[in-house]
Amino acid sequence: MRAVWWREVRELLLPGLGAVVALAALGVHWAIYVRPADRVAVFGVVGAGLGLFQGLLDRRRRDDGFFLHRPASALVLHGTRGLAALSWLLLGAGAFAAGLGYERARWAARSFAPASGFARYSDILVLREGDDAGTVTIPVGLPTSVLALLVAVTWAGWAATRFGVARPRRLLAVPVTGVATLGTWSFVARAPDAVAAAAIAGASGLAWAVWGLWDLAGDRR
Amino acid sequence: MPIFRVDPSRGEPPFQQLVDAVKRAVATGALSPGDRLPSVRDLARELVLNPNTIAKAFRELESEGVTVSRPGAGTFVAERRPTMSREERRRRLEEGFEAVLTEAVPWGATDEETRKAFEDAMARLRGAKGGGS
Amino acid sequence: MSAQGNVARWDRVTVCFGTHRALDGASFAVPVGGVTALLGRNGAGKTTAIRTLLGLLAPTRGSVEVLGHDALAVPPALRARIGYVGEGHPLPRWMKVKDVVAYQASGFPTFDRAQCTRWLERFDVPRTRRVMQLSRGMRAQLALAVALAPRPDFVVMDDPALGLDTVARREFLEVMIDLIQEEGRTLLLTSHVLTDVERVADRVVLLDRGVVRVDAPLDDVRRLVRRYELVHAGVPPETLEPIAGLVRARRRHGRWTVTVRGEEAAVVAAVRATGAEVAGVEPLSLEDVFVEYTTREEVLS
Hints:
- The structure holds 3 protein chains of 3 kinds.
- By secondary structure, chain A is mainly alpha-helical.
- Chain A contains 8 helices and 3 strands, in the order αααααβββααα.
- Chain A has one domain (2-214).
- A 3-stranded antiparallel beta sheet of chain A has the order 2-1-3.
- Chain A starts with a helix and ends in a 7-residue tail after the last helix.
- Chain B contains 5 helices and 2 strands, in the order H-H-H-E-E-H-H.
- Chain B has helices spanning 14-28, 40-47, 51-63, 86-107, 111-132, and strands at residues 67-70, 74-77.
- In chain B, strand 1 (67-70) and strand 2 (74-77) form a beta hairpin.
- Chain B is globular.
- Chain B starts with 13 loop residues before the first helix and ends with a helix.
- By secondary structure, chain C is an alpha/beta fold.
- In chain C, helix 4 (113-123) runs antiparallel to helix 5 (136-148).
- At the A-C interface, helix 1 and helix 4 of A face helix 2, strand 6 and helix 3 of C.
């Protein structure tokens, strides 16, 4: 499925690069002032945006035969596309971290301490703890295995948008996906304890995945 | 080997056109008894026609006694032997002429013209046969 | 293959786009072996039918079966035996020709690279050029080559001749003839070039506004559908009494001309029963038949 993955990465070149640049800029802009929960939520929004773009690609329904008529199950085919979108998102996370690090370094050089006062967070990308540090952060104490669930949430947000857009529900799917992705992330980030955060992430990831993949029952493409 | 012409935009179905073309080639002597026809495969390529159409034309030709097929060897132009009864031949000739004459009458062709056209056609066919074989 | 010896079968298929019915209770089948041509004007439902066949579109009502499975649940191993060329030969524009070949080869286990290369050389498609730099005809040939290289048992082509010039179309037809020669292969194609269809098709299905009007062997269509010129004693009537199998009736220069499907003797008898005589009978080319069935006027049924 490497060919399918690469094709999709290439098809997403423009929005993907756009996401990387935007996230890098946000990393710089939000290095100091913005709460980690909102930083985190932006990834959900960008992920949903990529999903929306993929969905729009699919609206050119007449052109997709070459891609969709392939001896692989629809689940594998579209799952691989999801991974391609996720690859761009991870690249974007890297850019965000770079922007953040750059801005932090600049501030540190000017001997300013970043504003704090929030709970301690763990950065799930670089596995580092701090008051207000990192790119994709979760409250300290959350088991790292929850990382997988968080990824599932982002991915399922993509899947829901993608299938929502491709199907007659598309008008509903866009706002629902946006609101729900934001909501899920902020709940996770503000959960009173690790168990609650894990439960929220797990439940919503499951719900998204079920909704997103429901359309793939059988081999409908 | 004569070149058979098939033009799908004409009124008759392609297989009928091929049957007629082979019959004409036999009548003019371009094909002689014992000559081997191209294989269905080759003819399909050459004429750019569905092989099933060629095969159908070959079946038709065989059932009319124009060709014989020898399994493994191919399709050959049949020896000209009276496979039809005299009665059957007469009936077919009459049918054929009647078709032509029904066409010709509305044009106002005179008996003389009709007879002359018939004799000319015969002469042309014989001439072609003499030259062709 | 299914019990009826069909590669694909549409069973009362209706596809709605909003209020528009692209297919309206269409039932027809593609038998194993040979070439079936799906004909119809633009918007008649041909592409919709093909998209339901490939599981790219779910019917609103009815079902489509392909290789013995519901079209929406064809296992990948069977899907690998179906070759598909989409309308307009869509290929990713940014890919190079060799990328397109590699992409397709990575998906289809039976992909025959040597054959694909031979076809591309025959068609003169440069391997290092990008799809967006290819001419329409070259893109079409590339799409055909990569769709046919896996040696599929069932080939589905949506207007494969679109954008090909006369010479390229002939080359393509020659490739088609080679394909048919291989035993047991089934082709389903749509085309607007009816003389090509007459060269290659065994069977035709004619769609008109989502409804199947003809589903028969090509020879039957050619033999049975004819145009009859009628003469009436005295003044020709304003309306014609019904004739079984009537396709189209026109009144021109004070005479009725009818296109009827049926054995000639039976049609002549039916015409006589209405009090008219047959003044002339004309066999029709497939193009004529197509026009007679799909022209939107004076169609009496």
